[in-house]
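FORM 7B - TANDEM STRUCTURE REPORT

SECTION 1: FIRST PROTEIN
SEQUENCE AND TOKENS:
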Amino acid sequence: MAQADPEVVVGPGRIRGRGQGGVFAFRGIPYARPPVGRLRFCAPEPPAAWDGVRDASAFGPAAPQPGAEPPADGADEWLTLNVWTPDPSAGRLPVMVWVHGGAYLFGSSAEPAYDGTRFAMAGTVLVTCNYRLGVEGFGQIPGAPANRGLLDLVAVLRWVADNIGAFGGDPGNVTVFGESAGAGLIAALLAMDGAGNHSTSDLFRRAIAQSVPGTFFSPELASDVTAAVAREAGIAPAREALAAAGPAALVDAAARVTARMREFGRWGGVRLTDTPFSPVVDGEVLPRAPWPALLGGAAREVELLTGHNRDEYRLFTVMSGRHGKITEEEAEAVLEAFAPAPGGPDGYLGAFGDADPGRLFEVVFSDWLFRMPTLHLAQAHAASGGTTYLYELRAEAPAMNGLLGSCHFLDVPLIFGPPDPGSGPGISDALLGPDPSAALLGLGDRMREDWIRFASGDDPGWSTYGTEHRATRIYDMPPDVVSYPEEASMRLWQRHQFDVLGLAAEENTAGENTAEEDAAEEDAAGRG
């Protein structure tokens, strides 16, 4: 269309976007009211109407998170989304809604890595969004709804259902896709299908889950984490006290807890990660963990494309400076924490007997945190009769002379394409390096084309995954289709059921109180 800066009408009023690079972008559109003041720790509420034409040229502020500058006064519109479209006057284009990752602690839709231009140029309407993180989004708080960050995503999808037609999109053809924590939230959306007031039925038809994390918390574990954060902040683990603390204060307290997670023995294997927050299987917002939910038939009618990268955990050992420095004791610790029954640590040692401690550490962590949760999600969906596609990324990041391998997050810059050189340095640049090969970029183009083909209603270019025929697309140079390649890990985990993570029976090695003890102490202090 000829108009450089088009205007469209959404529920609360008129907005003006920007024409750029042959597509049209609308940024910083509120999909809910700012979750502050009386709305702190509440479910999202629809945005207020505005007069005149709202400028939609700039991203909204990121949700509070470590390392971010506190927002300026009044800059509390964290709950915004962005839309890229080839033509707002088009009709019935496939819609893709991207959910960013970041360990449920970090991230923003303003990241240059998530620019939607290439997707829009290919004929889709691409939506990205912010959602609440950390304590704001996933802290288990008495008297507050659980999983507020997840409820934010439901609000995004309802906004899409109501408004995406104004951008040329088809509200009846929506695909959600995301990576890491974003994939975990998509798995949670699948588990919510048909469940009570927060059901996601009819909000999307397809889902793409890239590197699904296996951490879903019980209310008891999540409450204990919240209590630890409150203790660091010097306040009671109660809604009123937490709401009286500024978001930045809770972010700082959560960062201090994250830095000493290994002291919390009662948190089980979670203490060995840097992720103190995850979706909470509270029985109301999220009735079940994704794996038993999908095995029981939830989201059977939603087509699922899911997969992982071969060397998932390599990113974290390299970026932390630990690659090549993992000791036998550290490898033994993750084996004891994560190796599944019945084989336990001996099963891994038998299957990967030639691996040095560093390699064993990475394989076990990759399997527990990303690879096997992803595989089991595909297996559960396929076993219930769902249409399921599986992939593994095997191409290697060219940065650092290939040291990173096919690590976590590499799929993102491949699928979205390299960020604009003027956007500043970021993790995408750290993975792709200054001059990625044409062959690697071409592989990324192929992945994006496959994602869009799937979102348009076709198969992504390979056959479905089944419990007998485990067809798996291998994204390498060249691509291939084989039976699921990580057979040793698959067999070690075949009798394991991923489910809710709860408090461990182990004594608290940090000498800290439980959440219940904290509450009793605060109550006694109040009476005194």
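SECTION 2: SECOND PROTEIN
SEQUENCE AND TOKENS:
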Amino acid sequence: MRQNIVTEKSLSGGSRRLVWLFLVLQFVSLSRQVFITNFGAEWNILGYASNVGSILVFITFLIAIRNVDRIGYFSGLPAWGRIWWWLTALLVLFGVLLGTVTHHYIFKFVALDSVPYFVIFGMVLVGSKPTAFHYFVKSLLMLLYAAIPLNLYALTDIGELAAQSGEGDRFGVTSLGYETQATLATWPLLLLLSNGLKRGQAILVFVGVLIYAGMMIIFQKRLGTAMVLLVVTLYVHQSLHVSRYRIGRVVGAGRHYLRELSVIAFLALFVLLVGGRGLLAEQAAALFGRFSFGGQSGYSQGIFSLLTLENERIRIVYECFSGFGWYEWFIGRGMGGAFEWSSFNTNLLATDRSETLLSQYFLPDLGYFGRREFEIGIMMPMLKGGLLLTAALFSGVLNILFSPQKIRRDFYSSAAYYSVLYVSVFLLHGGGFILADSFTLIIWGISIGRCLYAVGPAAAEQSLHTPALSAGFRH
């Protein structure tokens, strides 16, 4: 039997251009609302075209990296990782067949449901190849730099919205910045990798993280704020123990930038509190009220009501699963699957966004008001593939999360481990397997791949060798 030997093949110029093209197209798709706001609704086609184009580019890229580092797509994965990859991918394919052949859903919706899984599993393969992993991360770093001015521009309407709103109102969710925040979604992985960057690059990452944190406060996003606190805590823990990790083949080569992060955070807080006319302080107080018992959230049990039927996200999930047939608990409703939103009329009467809701939630192919997705990400595989897909997908993730000592032996795998933890926790009450969360799914997939590489045969043979990198990471 032919062995998978190390080839040390680097990414070709064409492969690198494909990485950039894929990520730029996704970036354009996530920022489409900027074009729509400035040039009209007809520019929405740009988002659809970018999504379709990016997937075609990504397929081409995956074909090109087959023999990078080692021969074969799965040569960097451990044996159980290959089984997990194929089992879950086949269950996704079964969901596609269930949606198209059995339920006859419109192919567009089947594709929209299945493509996010394709991106995740494609990125797992990318993450298991160190050369591809590092180049992808450096490209994500450049896009974060582009996302900073984009989101600052998108927040320029905050002052006007605040002036038109009452005290404690969540006016931020109507801001253009609320639509562009997804372009910053790579911040967790990049923050966790920032100790491997040059100082100037790390500082720009910190700026991006602080802008995102400020946006979460302005938008009064409880989950988003909690996630920022989680990742910053993980970063501080990693920084205090950075000398334990190996960067390349050198143990203890890393250093941390906690002092720089503290200075930037202090300056940002000072500028926002003093120069922001109290806007951030007011929104922070309102956000604290939404975390508190009987606060402005309107929940009887405060923050704990997030886990009850008082919370709309939980109520929608309950409505869906209360209509499940016995077999649907095992195989779901297939890709493109939906459920009737029985309380939709109540929600419709309680809002002034009637036309928006009508266009968004009426499913013409099924003839009722409903939804094809949840706002709780971990529940979406259950809707599309039942317990089989959900158990298969998250069994691999849990295996990673319960193997920290095996994975966190080098700096990059440690950052990837924490990134997997972040996205997995985030999916417990937010996010989703949708293209609108593509950057989150990208960092989840590539981080899973890196973690699998850390316990795979390639890492053992190469002693977690980090290939030579161009400007972007310190050695």
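SECTION 3: OBSERVATIONS ON SECOND PROTEIN
Strands lie at 246-247, 250-251, 339-340, 362-363, 368-371.
The CA atoms of residues 346 and 354 lie 11 Å apart.

SECTION 4: SIGNATURE
Preparer initials: ____
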